[in-house]
Design goal:
alpha/beta, globular, 5 strands, five-stranded mixed β-sheet, 153 residues
């Protein structure tokens, strides 16, 4: 059976009111959601791996979206946490603030599935309607439903 990115969408790992104002704080906050949902066990090591990767090359798209991630054996499956910030989070790479943060952890051996997943999310975010619907979702369940139902172009 082919991998579907929607398999990793989980309302427990969606923060609709991200408190963080900086990239590092956003990564820590979202990694905490993954830890609390039982998706990662080595919280600090995982967060450090994501920060180290982000420090080499920012994943800030310049369009209000960032995809901080790490390829690491600290996870056995692809994991995703999403944070939404109405005020915005500063990520290096652009002066534009980030409003949607997609934190991804991927095992070294699952790079193809990771690329499928990131591509799927990026295509889903292209239409303004999709981003608007995500910004207006009132519950994590609604947010996940928007992600699942959005056209993948």
């Amino acid at each position: 059976m082919a991998f579907s990115c929607s398999e990793i969408y989980d309302p427990r790992t969606v923060a609709l009111d991200l408190r963080a104002a900086t990239m590092n704080d956003a990564i820590l906050e979202l990694a905490g959601l993954l830890r609390d949902a039982g998706r990662i066990s080595e919280y600090y090591k995982f967060a450090d791996a994501v920060m180290e990767r982000e420090g080499r090359s920012s994943t800030n798209t310049g369009e209000g979206i960032a995809f901080p991630h790490a390829r690491t054996d600290l996870v056995s499956d692809i994991v995703l946490a999403v944070g939404r910030s109405k005020t915005g989070v500063h990520f290096p790479g652009s002066e534009a603030l980030v409003h949607l943060v997609f934190l991804i952890g991927v095992p070294q051996k699952m790079i193809t599935n990771y690329l499928v997943c990131v591509g799927s999310i990026a295509r889903m975010l292209k239409p303004d309607e999709s981003r608007t619907a995500l910004m207006n979702a009132t519950t994590p369940e609604e947010f996940v439903a928007v992600m699942r139902d959005a056209p993948s172009l």
